[in-house]
Amino acid sequence: MTDKASLWAAAKRFEGILRSDPRAYSFMPLSDIYRQLGLLEEALDTARNGAALYPDLAGGQMALAKSAIECGFKDEAVKALEAVVRVTPENIEAQRLLADLYMSTGNSAAAQSCILVANSLDITFSDEPFVTASSNEIDLPEEDLLDADILELSDELIEDDIFDDLAQPFSASPQRPSLGDDVNRAEPFLMDSPPPLYEQELPAAEQQSVMVSATIAELYLKQGFPEKAVEVYRDLLASDPLNMEYEKRLMELIQPENALSDEITGTPPDGLLDKLQAWLGNIGRVKECRIKSL
Prior knowledge:
Strand content: under 5%
Number of strands: 0
Number of domains: 2
Structural class: mainly alpha
Mean pLDDT: 70
Shape: elongated
Helix content: 55-70%
């Protein structure tokens, strides 16, 4: 009873903030509170209004997606989650929710891409299949899975502090505030300073960028874009000339006698190339921000 009373008190506070400033970020926690109280229509309306004001705010689109899912508006939820992963492709929760929704509509290729990216980012992920609400429907052929060497590379590159150190690519995307925070104007998530010396180990966020880039290169290849995979591996090798794994993989892809068709499965789904390029572009912006901060 006390918890519910606390939720109502917090809801009243955020409602007051929004009345005084309709452009405040407090629509995000307010929508979440409404969902916890079972006020699903109010949660959805609040999230819709806020997301309309801030279409590039990942937290706002996430609030909209969750409310839309609970209200049964799958198409609206998909659109909101796609907006989230365009801005923050490293958002594991968004990738997995999107995979669930894609599977529920029969778009298994897009679901697979989301799951692979999410698993490559998840520090707790093992080789066991990722389980979602619709995971029992996933039956992927072995040749569609990422190569073992890329998965091993991902495991080596991921560290426990990845997400604490990760810089958001858009300053307009703040962390969602807690109920006790002043959310009238939430501060954007700020980038930590990387180690000053190049001899030191790569920062966790930069390690993640490298790992995700390699993963997306493999997705390019699997989905029928070998030339894009070659471009990514060339960039990775240029940034790390002594990396034998990158050199080996690049040689495998560009050797004329190498039958790339053995690694390419099916026809690329519509829009997949644009999606992969958008993810790669956002990852590149994270790396550029780190370089500029030196």
